Amino acid sequence: MTFNQSTLTLTNSTDLWLEIPETEQTKAWEQSQAFSSSNRRWIAYLNRLSLNTFLPWVRDEYAPDATAFPKAAANPSIWEVVNGTGISFGTSRMVLIPTEAVDLDELRVPQEWVDIPSWSADYYVAVQVNLEEGCIRVSGYTTQAQLKNMGTYDAGDRAYCLDAENLISNLNILWMARQICPEEVTRTETAPLPTLSVTQAENLLKRLGNSALILPRLAVPFQTWGALLEHGGWRQRLYEQRQGMQPQWSIREWVQGGVSDFAQKFGWGSIELQSSFQGSRGSVQEAELPTMVRRLTIDGQGYELRLQPKGNIENNIWRFELRNGNRDERIPSGFILKLLTEDLQPFDGNQVKATTPKERLYIEVALGESREGLVWQIEPTPEDYESEILYF
Fold first, then answer.
1. How far is CA 61 from CA 58, 151, 172, 219, 332, in A?
2. Partner of 389 for a Cys bridge, out of 30, 47, 188, 233, CB 3.0 to 4.6 A?
3. Distance between CA atoms of 324 and 104, rounded to whole angstroms?
4. Biggest CA pair distance of the chain
5. How far apart, in Å, are the Cα atoms of 275 and each of 284, 294, 311, 323, 328?
């Protein structure tokens, strides 16, 4: 069955207008300051206003499970280099493309939101932000399939463009189409991007992390740029370097001085565990072991990923441990805890699988003297997961 959206567009051409609360404008501006230039601060401001105004409406009207993607904490690293805001609901995604333009003659979607596989969405929504009137106007949307088939590609700006007259102006049609024709193809297959080596990534970060480079997204071939951005850990480093920030993901520094404020936004914290050990004269002493904790949600259930040095921190032996957030519950069989190198490569002994329900899953890894980065993964994938590089 094919759903003819154009027949409904003619009789349902009402745009969606949503009011921006006055307090939200002030709050969004205050939260949009940590960027490398006034232009990027403004881009972040428009995106934050759009997200914070549109997302509650979507949750109330159509999709209670709607949430920012890849995750809200990752948005600054995206807005530093690309315009657009992702929202996921169920198994679908949409991307808001905000603009201040009064007369929208076309929708311009940055290539990143189309050709990076983990970013590619089903729907792209044109959002006009009117700060004087204190509102946003959703002036139309298109699917990824329509954007690719009917739009044009602007190589100079690396954007897919679709004339405004080809947009579906009534957003309600999107939800009607999903009900009437759930098998409609909204997203075509996206080709995978190449894998970057650590050396390649370091060279790119050194070059593109210079805030004097105004448009880093146009400074290298898209395949290379897309591969760098798709890796959440490298994209975070790019953002941090363009702000002139000190490294935020050093585990040794976390152990000695506490988890960085930046990492706390991603869910990391610390707890102190008491461990008994035999003293030199046979007495039992209490040692405080600094333990980093990342709280996770997997299939609706809470879990904890714990990270702890084994023995003296100078030994550089670390234990990654997954536990159920409920002490009375176990980790289900089939769960996998996995560690990868910074460039997402496996190594000997890098994963453990629960063949039966377990109280905990853990991996102990001994690292060398030079700095190394590790990326953790869990199967099934936790909600809002993105690659994080932990440096040791």
1. 5, 30, 10, 41, 35
2. 233
3. 50
4. 87
5. 10, 20, 11, 18, 22
Q: Which CATH architecture has domain 5-180?
A: 3-Layer(aba) Sandwich (3.40)
Q: Where are the domains of the chain?
A: 5-180, 198-242, 251-391
Residue 380, preceding peptide bond in cis (omega within 30° of 0): yes
- Which amino acid is located at 188 in the chain? T
The continuous run of DSSP H or E covering 207 comes out as: helix 198-208
For 97, 127, 289, the CA distances from 159, given in Å and listed in that order, are 12, 16, 50
Short-list 23, 35, 29, CA closest to 81: 35
Structure tokens at 100: 């201040």
Question: In this predicted model, what pLDDT tens digit does every residue of 101-136 receive, in sequence order?
Answer: 988 899 999 999 999 999 999 999 999 999 999 999
Record the pTM: 0.90
Distances (CA, A) of 153 to 23, 108, 110, 140: 38, 9, 10, 19
Please, which residues have CB within 8 angstroms of residue 53's CB and are 6 or more apart in sequence? 18, 19, 20, 24, 136
Structure tokens belonging to residue 188? 């075509």
- Tell me if 270 sits within 8 A of 290, measured CB to CB: yes
